[in-house]
Amino acid sequence: MRKAFYNPARKLSAALVIVLFGVTSIAQSAYARGAPDSFADMAERLLPTVVNISTSQLVADRQGPDFQFPPGSPFEDLFRDFMERNGQGKGQEQGQNAPKKHRATALGSGFIISADGYIVTNNHVIDGADEISVTLHDNETLPAKLIGRDAKTDVALLKVDTKKDLPFVKWGDSDKARVGEWAMAIGNPFGLGGTVTAGIISARNRDINQGPYDDFIQTDASINRGNSGGPLFNMDGDVIGINSAIYSPSGGSVGIGFAIPSAIAESVVDQIKEYGRPRRGWLGVHIQTVTDDIADSVGLKESYGAMVAGVTKDGPAEKAGIKQGDVILKFDGKKVESMRRLPRIVAETKIGKSVDVELWRDGEKKDITVDLGELKEEAAADNSTDDQQEQAPVQTSSEATIDALGLKVANVDDDLRQRFNLTADTEGVVVTDVDTASFSAEKGVRPGDIILEASHQSVSTVDEVQKAVKSAQDDGKRTILMLIETSAGPRYFGLTLDKQDKKDK
Prior knowledge:
With 505 residues, the chain is an alpha+beta fold.
């Protein structure tokens, strides 16, 4: 499976793809509504608020094929003659011809949110365009100005100048959307113009790995190429989502589409309108998922929250006293159900606000207050993990085997610094080998990683690591919490104190 942004110049393969152009949202009542007799009245009212968006940009032509014939080949002269006849040969070789360019176009959808011509669409619809035009429902075409955009949420805001008031729609509350409710999508699939499709809300809170704030609504309303940026309506005719992506083996609708919820999009649009860009809250932490093993090792009965793997120096979190190893359970009164929930909560919180934060530290809950800062692009939290290339095991004099973890570890010395490309000031305990049949290998521990802490205690020697493991075993613990410096930065691991032999399974 691969992921691809929609580009009409790009041929879609038959491989399963996630393509950014379509999907859904919803609204809620106390009880589920019955099936409507018809969508006709609502469609008639809403169609004039949806626009077609056309973009164009200059792109360089390919300058011939990516192969050459060897000197002296009988095809060499024939190939050179062909290239010269097509303006890509001799003159080009002498630098006389500049690379040719052509104008590429793309189509998408959008919707009007104000009578004076503000229009919402997807960022990927207008990304890279040097010309944007909008075609209204009455076929009038107007040039559009880009007010601002946000790649993280795939939202863009345009503006057209018109002498008349335009019909517009209002935002709905996507947080009230319920799975199973009816939804209607309008857009410009395949450049056909205003097209209405209907379906239900299939799922909520989908993470399709498109950005740090993924929280998509899934729908089975038919969405296709060109629907990108179009609205998903609830049965009140309010916009609860921006159709953005589909899941498909062919690039066509198979009934699995995704929409950016209005709860995210409306706030981003308002900030772009006021500041020209989104402004987000910043906490200043690097976080990771609280797995079942990590929850067990820190004494949490449930595996929820976001574990602090690192704290940005002089950031809001450090100033408030948040420490590496804390688990953030609640932020501004909102429960952090999962690690990915925290960035969205923080981003949506007012900059400068004093926020109450509930932590889990040393086996108990702790409340602190944080004065939230503003997120800059370079300050974004790093929640990723990159595998480090495994090195061939080499026995060293200071090496020791920890059978319970399936690890070989050693005190850092000059030989190990050179072997694992460690910096001159690296100290501590380095993992020199990992049993491929161990839980540690399964969790992602790699040779060259540096063990910094064991059971919340700093370790700098092999002996200290061994003592921490034995102490955890003596206490009857199933797992031990370790802070390990990986190629992607420091991360916590809840390592099972038992060797796993997968070959026996």
